[in-house]
Records
---
Amino acid sequence: MKKLISNLGRWGPEILRSRQRPSSELRITDYRSRITGILLLSVLLFLAACSTPKHGLYVKNGALMKNNKPYRAIGANQFDLFYRTLKNNSDTSYRKGLKQLSEAGIPFVRFMCGGYWPSEYNLYFEDKETYFKLLDDVVNAAEENNIGLIPSIFWYFPTAADISGEHMDQF
């Protein structure tokens, strides 16, 4: 991408020089290189837009899809999946819970991906590395059990206002 951007910088002066020539002196190769560049960029954008994710859920023509088929499922709410670990860093009971959900055929869970009260976001603000390590462990356990995750960043919405120092009527 950097090379493409740097080349764009080189093309700018060339385009200016070609515009300074009288129209009778414009070369066909100038047009060919521009058209080729535009076509190449169009093809790359088309291929990027058409690529299908290797795994997981995605939306195609307004429908939720998985493995190229429309997807419908019922998940579970597990409020404290990450919260227990956030309150007690050595608590890994989420592993057992995710295993049980997997055995029951539950494909995904919605969980609180942070604290409930503003004070429970202290670990995030003071030690992001530890916070994300704990969260990564939960995500890895979910992947091991083929459980999808729907994180709710602010389970209790007024917490967002408190953390940002805003009044609720500003949200």
---
Amino acid sequence: MPKAAKERTVFLFAVIASLVLFCAPAMASSTHVLGSATEKGSGLFVSDRTCVIVSCMPRSPRADEAGGLYHALNRGNLRAEIFKKEGDFIAFESILAEALEIHQVELYSYVLMPNHYHLVLRPLLDGEMSRFMAWVGGTHTMRYHAHYHTGGTGHVYQQRYKSSSLRSRSR
């Protein structure tokens, strides 16, 4: 057996052994949930015949303090164009205007490019930039899919938006 195959076999055996160790005491009873993947970052999910261990690293809190100045950006999935025609740019500007009416955020500048955008903004409440960006991204995604009839075909954005504090940069 090749070395790589042996290593995979040893790894799989270790995973199975871990499952047995964690699941054996609970297998006698019905369904149990120990921990919560969304609340604590990991959990053990057990039923009569199955046991699954979920372990995921929780996201670290995003810097999002009231009064801070931030650069935020988001990019199309696989760097695909999210603004395909002039009307797409105008629609996104409309979404930004709506978001500014809803959320307590000051928008100082923005740049829209075919496959991504940049914003310079200041949240007026702690956590408001995250709420603003979630609303902008979610609203844009729903309207994009509705306009292009692409609902259920995948993500518009590559991942969550990225942000960095502009005060921490030295130039």
---
Amino acid sequence: MLHSRLYEQEKIQTTWAERARPKVTFYEGAEGLRDVYRDFHSYRNSEVLSFTNCKALYEGVGKNFLYQTYKKRQALGITVKSLCPDNPEDTAEQRQDARAARRIKLFPHQKYRIPNEVIVYADKVALMSFADKISVVIENKEIAESLRTIWHMVWDQY
């Protein structure tokens, strides 16, 4: 019996070791947050999906940095679609969609709170905290696909 349990435990550990584990990368500070944006610029002709709060985003990485990325995104063929709260900052940003190579849809900020940003691109999901100046990027096809599906479900509602 004990031998059987040890064999089963060894089998489970072997199975986990054989699986591909997600790659997880941590970023810190305003420059670390900017590195996440630089990372998705390495995927030409791609689509980036986000849940974003523009006011927090500006405070986290800086408006000037973001404005510099717009032309680069356009040149690389990267499109961005963002779901944002309908606060004054995000509503103003929506009017700049064409210039910024993106499309924003607004959701009621009184009902839903997004204080940070979640970005889905390539096979990656970035979870960003602007207040703490940290980001965690998970690289895994299935996790990215799941978040991409959730994002599209919300997008289709607005």
